[in-house]
Records
---
Amino acid sequence: MTCFNHSKKDSVGSCKSCGRALCHACIAPGLDSIACKNRCENQVQALDGFLNKAVMNKYSTTVVGQAAVTVMMAGLSVLFWNLELPGFAVFLLVLTVILGFNTYRYYNKK
Ligand SMILES: [Zn+2]
Ligand SMILES: [Zn+2]
């Protein structure tokens, strides 16, 4: 592929916003992603900022911790079930459901 603006130059990537192929000279500097210089840099910057914020909100440490515990509890339940301790497994499953429900509620609050 060649640069959208320079038909003689090879492109090094394509703009995240409009998808045009760009050479080094046409890529806006100082951004995490590739963007057309003087054309799409603002859009791409906004997009990156939005994505970063969304990721931070969605995967806050509380939720990640709770999800990890939930998965661990579910695993333990299966383990105890296999050890023929269904009573304890049921107890763990109930705890898992409560934790899972909390995580679910947290997600929906956003
Ligand atoms: Zn662009
Ligand atoms: Zn170019």
---
Amino acid sequence: MKVIVIGGGASGMVASYFFAKNGNEVTLIEKNEKLGKKLYITGKGRCNLTNNCSVEDFLNNVVSNPKFLLSSINNFTPEDTMNFFESLGLPLKTERGNRVFPLSDKSSDVIKVLEKALINLGVEIRFNENVLDLIVEDNTIKGVTTTMCDYFADKVVVATGGLSYPSTGSTGDGYKWAEKLGHKITDLKPSLCGFNLKGEEYKELQGLGLKNVTLTAYDDGKQYYKEMGEILFTHFGISGPLVLSCSALTCKKDYKKITLSIDLKPALSEKELDNRILRDFSINKNKEFKNSLDGLLPKTLIPLIITRSKILPYKKNNVISKEERLGLVNTLKNLNFSLASLRDYTEAVITSGGISIKDVNPSTMESKIVKNLYFIGEVLDVDAFTGGFNLQIAFSTAKRCAN
Ligand SMILES: Cc1cc2nc3c(=O)[nH]c(=O)nc-3n(C[C@H](O)[C@H](O)[C@H](O)COP(=O)(O)OP(=O)(O)OC[C@H]3O[C@@H](n4cnc5c(N)ncnc54)[C@H](O)[C@@H]3O)c2cc1C
């Protein structure tokens, strides 16, 4: 059979591999001058290509539509992904949080082994060719129109990715074609990205990194996220691992109703923190409040905490009331910020939303509307937290459609 795969990213390369391995004549069309431009920048250039975890743990890390992925993940598990890359000659290693990387720490090696395997299997790779549209007759795919010519095939696989990091080639083309053919596209939002905060206060904290703090997010007062980890204050608000994972849930909500709260001392209860402050204050009775927080907080954070606590900065510790002290404890345990918006696609690791899973067969990835047309990878309405899960989605859906 003749198969056309559109998009030489993570999912397109793996789908091309398995289609060719199964004896099909495969043409892979990539608009860029090379394969895997996005793959190259994954994992900060090291490519966290999967997570060395069970299928169950994988599914727990999928944010949107985990059930849709049941068939593909069972058919191509994280372990299968690791075996697959090792069999292509890419030694791997597992790091903190079960994150799997190439032993060489080079994402370019992932691309190299895939490209070599595709060439060995006789996949025809067409570079610098932009697919403009799909050719469909009687609800059956016939081929594609590119900037060069028309190609005809028995099957067409759309592996064009999402909207994030458009400079890598992922510009959402697949959504447009799918929508035109009657597939529903669910709300598209940047995800796994930083938060723009309201107000000006965060500007003074720019560059400050906080480790072992807890971030809690509330939607109209209702808690929907709470995790301990690392936050980074930036020129726009906050970022860092905790914020990225929180964004995967936040992107589906009405930003206006979101409140973010940082617990600066999650290891201490309010009572324990109060005792600690009381001890500090009684040792330094005559010290001014503004000079008393050095042992408790990073320097950059002190002016904001003083303002929020409403305790006069020049007040001596021995005249600070119990009420004021409890106000300080509350500020330290609940440093609140309002969300303005999420960062945009140029910075978002993935796109949340996509081609509705209701229009795609989970056992084959074939469209339920157009025969012999397949959708795989980020173009689908599936996404996951960081940790190698998104590439695993790309690989599993790719393998599933080739079977
Ligand atoms: C900075 C960053 C870091 C990341 N790190 C990780 C990580 O460490 N681990 C992880 O699991 N995930 C990571 N991700 C997410 C991961 O890269 C994506 O989920 C994954 O690449 C999606 O694969 P895909 O094949 O669906 O799409 P893509 O990899 O985006 O590939 C789509 C391809 O289609 C091509 N294309 C698009 N339109 C056309 C057209 N009209 N004609 C021809 N070709 C076309 C594009 O040029 C592109 O090459 C990261 C993402 C980013 C942005």
